[in-house]
Amino acid sequence: SGAAAWLAGHTLEQLPEDKREVLILSRYQNLKYDEIARILGVEVNTVKVRVYRAVRALGEIYSELAGEKLA
Fold first, then answer.
1. Which of 10, 21, 29, 71 lies at a C-alpha separation of 20 to 30 Å from 54?
2. Distance CA 68, CA 38 (A)
3. pTM
4. How many whole angstroms separate alpha carbon 61 and alpha carbon 57?
5. What is the DSSP letter of 41?
6. pLDDT tens sequence across 9-49
């Protein structure tokens, strides 16, 4: 639905740049972690940690925004 699309897009916008960047590269650009590491100039484990933290943060932001939308 339109509300769900708005919520998803708005949630992504709320993430800090470093978290948003790895999510876009891994989930939307479908790049492998080693490719992202090479692009960003970091270790593969750093990319894994950033993606994990970004997904957690995304879930927290989504829950907060969804709660506001429902209230």
1. 71
2. 39
3. 0.78
4. 6
5. T
6. 777 888 899 899 999 999 989 999 999 999 999 999 999 99
